[in-house]
Amino acid sequence: MASGVAVADECLRVYDEIKMGHQWLYIIYRVSEDLRSIIVEEKAGHDKTYSDFVARLKQAEAKRQCRYAVFDVRFMHNDIPQERLAFFLWSPDTATIKQKMIYTSSKQALRNKMRGIHAEIQCTEDADLTMSNILERICSKLPLIQF
Predict the structure, then answer these.
(1) Do the Cβ atoms of 38 and 8 come closer than 8 Å?
(2) What is the pTM of this model?
(3) DSSP-derived secondary structure letter, 79
């Protein structure tokens, strides 16, 4: 727990479902209204897209709020299909100072419980959310295949 914000058990259960079974395409987490815990806001199936994910984050931005999220990124690397989990802290410039402070100070409480995250991405503007940026961050951590 950081800054008095605990991580709800459901957060870890749903995270395990994306990590172990790739049951979800993405999960969006938020801090509860009473500011006491991090909870699951949405878990999206594979009928959704990355554009849907970004749209959900933009809805939080419209409310001047931040979000945490995990996205199951699927891509090709050296002609081999890959899946990697990316953790997002969406902290848009338009979010209130209180939101930014709570999310930044509580992030580690959630991240410490999530094993198997390949990349952590802090986003403050639309350019940070482009898939090319996400893939660049993920691929920079992949080992090169030498022949």
Answers:
(1) yes
(2) 0.90
(3) T
| C-alpha–C-alpha distance, residues 79 and 15, integer Å | 28
Gap between the terminal Cα atoms of the chain: 46
CA 128 – CA 38 distance, rounded (Å): 23
Q: Residue 112: is its pLDDT beyond 50?
A: yes
User: Is the sign of the CA dihedral 10, 25, 54, 130 positive or negative?
Assistant: positive
pLDDT score recorded for residue 147: 44
Query: How far apart (Å, rounded) are the C-alpha atoms in residues 109 and 4?
Result: 10
Q: How confident is the model at residue 64 (pLDDT cuts 50, 70, 90)?
A: very high
Q: Rounded to whole angstroms, how far apart are CA atoms 30 and 40?
A: 6
3-state class (DSSP) for residue 13 = helix
Where would I find the H helices in 39-80? 50-62
Tell me the average pLDDT of the chain.
92
Calculated CA dihedral for residues 130, 83, 87, 110, nearest 10 degrees:
170
